[in-house]
Amino acid sequence: MTDSLLDSLRAAVPDLRLKTDAGDLEHYGRDWTRRWTPNPLAIALPGSVEEVQAVMRWAAQRQVRVVPSGGRTGLSGGAVAADGELVMSLERMNKALAFDRVDRTLTVQAGMPLEAVHNAAREHGLEYPVDFAARGSCSIGGNIATNAGGIRVIRYGNTREWIAGLKVVTAQGELLDLNRALVKNSSGYDLRQLMIGSEGTLGIVVEATLRLADPPPPTNVMLLALTSFEGLMEVFAAFRERLRLEAFEFFTDIALRHVLAHGAVKPFDEVYPYYVVTEFAVGDQDSEAAAMAAFEACMEAGWVADGVISQSDAQAQQLWRLREGITESLAPYVPYKNDVSVRISQMPAFLEQTQALLGQAYPHFEVVWFGHIGDGNLHINVLKPEQMAQADFVRDCEQVTKLLAQALKAHGGSISAEHGIGLVKKPYLDSTRGPAEIALMRGIRKALDPQGLLNPGKLFDP
Amino acid sequence: MTDSLLDSLRAAVPDLRLKTDAGDLEHYGRDWTRRWTPNPLAIALPGSVEEVQAVMRWAAQRQVRVVPSGGRTGLSGGAVAADGELVMSLERMNKALAFDRVDRTLTVQAGMPLEAVHNAAREHGLEYPVDFAARGSCSIGGNIATNAGGIRVIRYGNTREWIAGLKVVTAQGELLDLNRALVKNSSGYDLRQLMIGSEGTLGIVVEATLRLADPPPPTNVMLLALTSFEGLMEVFAAFRERLRLEAFEFFTDIALRHVLAHGAVKPFDEVYPYYVVTEFAVGDQDSEAAAMAAFEACMEAGWVADGVISQSDAQAQQLWRLREGITESLAPYVPYKNDVSVRISQMPAFLEQTQALLGQAYPHFEVVWFGHIGDGNLHINVLKPEQMAQADFVRDCEQVTKLLAQALKAHGGSISAEHGIGLVKKPYLDSTRGPAEIALMRGIRKALDPQGLLNPGKLFDP
Fold this sequence. Notes:
Two copies of one chain form a homodimer. Chain A is an alpha+beta fold. Helices cover about 35% and strands about 20% of the residues of chain A. The model of chain A has no long low-confidence stretch (mean pLDDT about 95). Chains A, B: This is FAD-binding oxidoreductase. Chains A, B: Belongs to the FAD-binding oxidoreductase/transferase type 4 family.
């Protein structure tokens, strides 16, 4: 059955590169979640838009379900293929195609890693400003599928803001050329925006034209030690008021201890419960003075107990590593990840409620907090005790996620700030989107993909 | 029949304000286009979200088609009710509802005029930066329905960029609360973005939460006289390179003559074929010097023959009036309006082709050009000779629009940069959107509004 199906694919797309080895099926069948057993039909590695189209035409004819696949660094199971799907990996389509100095755009294939996009933009003296720790492995197509956020949203917004045009292959194998980098285009529904964040369920992104920004200003990085959680929003306000913030990231002492155990350099002799790493534009005396003024005001108010400001690029990187190394340092503990957001103004009330909730709910688990305070996004990682079975651990965590989802609903928040819904957050989608919204999403999906071929089971059930 | 239908509406929504006088039917049944004879069933003027929902529930039950209506300043017939539709005017829902200093958002009802939004934002020391000449009459809901652009897109983008949340009433009368001003929210399809620019065909915007910007920097306004069309893009490049541009607008001598005939103050003794009005941030000596350097470079290159820089706010307003007064000064000629865009990089080639095309096509008509060069948007207005019948004039113009649409297609442009498709541009939608795209748009509309109740006939036929 599988063999004859793949034979028909080979016949339909003669030059298509296909992988079917057990190791490949496992490698390409999962993402950074480890909760599902990979079980794809095969891995298709198209080399061109035409091949992606041909594979989709074949899939539509044969009713074969397809999982679009980028760098598979996702944390919500959006790229998992556990049920005989064909994985459509874009990894061979990883080139920059065009740069336009007047439009200030870079056109790239969807499989290009984010870091390669950064480098390509810098070669032209410009910046693609979306950035986060998985930059070396994640692909721009995957970034678009989840509307990736990251550490510079406070200044530059999410991926959505930087997409000037998209080429997308539909479930029927047709090619859409969306918006073509027009600055102004009021000609009906913006399907480009609809595709961004749709997690591969409405079409397969094959190319993107990215807007580029001016190179960032010179910056300094500051690490702050906080004495209590309560002062966090005040510290943010004090810095935002006085400085052009490029990033404002928070983490707890537990997070720091894991990063230090992974080889990072200890920043302070003393131990404090909370830390902030913030990056801000400098370049004139005003901004240096403003940074010192913000720091001193926070010291005087008792919110901040200590601080260090980077004196070199190397030191800036060292400080950043304390925040960026967290995810990697936690990986061995197979953490259960929450990625939630509320309006910035709702943060204090939500934080208070959530702290109380988690303190009660997880007395025996280690909970690691970090997040992007400046855009209302908190990451709450629960670490699996070594002896505990994965299934039991997840079951216990899901009980708490139900409570967390209720708190989010009460505060108008989101169960997924930037990871996407995928498989992991699917049971909680209704905490964030109302029944009428979910019904409309279902209708849109059905309109675009009536056979249900694209990334089946992700986001919501048919 | 009409009477019993309206009786049933009065019974279903007892306190609903309704207008049925002939004068009101004409007033609310059309927008700034004058091509269709207004013929609505009646005008509903709901005072609350609940009333909008109740009217839509009634409409769904009775299969009554509904035209959502804001300031009716549209130029594409998007708010025309010429076929017995119920007009749903949001004009009574025109209040600011909430301001949040931490989130930097302003929540307003959809019927609030743009200028009132500007004023409300400024009361809090912040700015809603989308702006254009119809600000006094147009409503924010209409701005959202067309993703309005205007004169500051080069700096601030279109309406789309400033919408943090939307409340929308569906064809079934359900209320959607979309995105709730979250900065990060990756929880499925972004229906907020889908609604923006959908011209009232997918839902009725009843409330919007707007992001606000820092107050604009101090600026100067400069008027430039250009000797030829060819230098236009070079002048733009010279200014963009050296200054933080807030606006860069172009118009022809014919446009200027109409504005002067309307009472504006003549800027130069000599007559030049083309003019640019540009606004840029100042505040330090650097920017003043940069502006002079840009001006002198353009003079030396022979692109610019004369210029004037504003010495006061009053003079800045006087210079702006030369550009902003164009539409009003042309109104008596019932102009046929083209509102097209291409990528900025495509402008020179497109302009050349279009100039040649229009020169051949309109030897007997007066053609007035102006536009937003910095974002690739050209307005081409053809003036009706006094003696010519409107229908004959439109028929002749449409012949040329067909050619223009072909040129746009060749250059990857759009038949509507900012006015929307409505009724006026509907025959040309396929110059901008491919057949697969239009099929998907049709499917989405059908999924959201299966009975075809919302703004029927606009954008595309069922």
